[in-house]
Amino acid sequence: EIVLTQSPGTLSLSPGERATLSCRASHYVTTKYFAWYQQKPGQAPRLLIYGAFTRATGIPDRFSGSGSGTDLTLTISRVEPEDSAVYYCQHYGASPRFTFGQGTNLEI
Amino acid sequence: VQLLESGGGLEQPGGSLRLSCAASGLTFNNFAMSWVRQAPGKGLEWVSSITGNGAYTYYADSVKGRFTISRDNSNNMLFLQMNSLRVEDTALYYCAKEGFATVPGGYYYYLDVWGKGTSVTVSS
What we know:
The complex is a heterodimer of chains A (108) and B (124).
Chain A: E1 4-7, E2 10-12, E3 19-25, E4 34-39, E5 46-50, E6 54-55, E7 63-68, E8 71-76, E9 85-92, E10 98-100, E11 104-107
Parallel strand pairs in A: 2-11
Antiparallel strand pairs in A: 1-3, 3-8, 4-5, 4-9, 5-6, 7-8, 9-10, 9-11
Chain B: E1 2-6, E2 9-11, E3 17-24, E4 33-38, E5 44-50, E6 57-59, E7 67-72, E8 77-82, E9 91-103, E10 106-114, E11 118-122
């Protein structure tokens, strides 16, 4: 069973700075099986990135996904105050079907 | 696409609840669906999934044997029957649609549309 470890736990940045959020898998997995979600307080999660690299519909191009093997990265090129949220990585697999990381809290 | 959950509430340990999710704006039977929960102040935990035709179901170990996922494609409804509830089942339960994409030899899935959630509290 895969374990996803996200770092850092909390990231505090100023508007316009670059955010780099990491997701490390416990063993090698198919890179394309990763997704990223954003969850703002009191809201449901929102899909940001799927297939490790593809932005979901309506997601600004300042959000990008990269990485391979056991290390995936979500980058926000220039953060804005509205980007304050918890970000989760997720892996699709055989069992369990979906596994989530514990989340990174981004404060702007 | 819209998903609207209902059926949450307060239940005693050992009790049962049935969650529902009404889907609109999509060809429902074309898509697998999932339930994901979030305990208060905690992260996301996948609970269960069901294929578009209902033929295959999947469960997290934490709920296997206690929860049953099902769907009614004629009415665009998803369900989660929760039996033998435990205090640790207390959470906000989200219904989510599974998107999919192809890779050589198959598909992979992700959760592209989420409902607002329904709250389940298990307490004596």
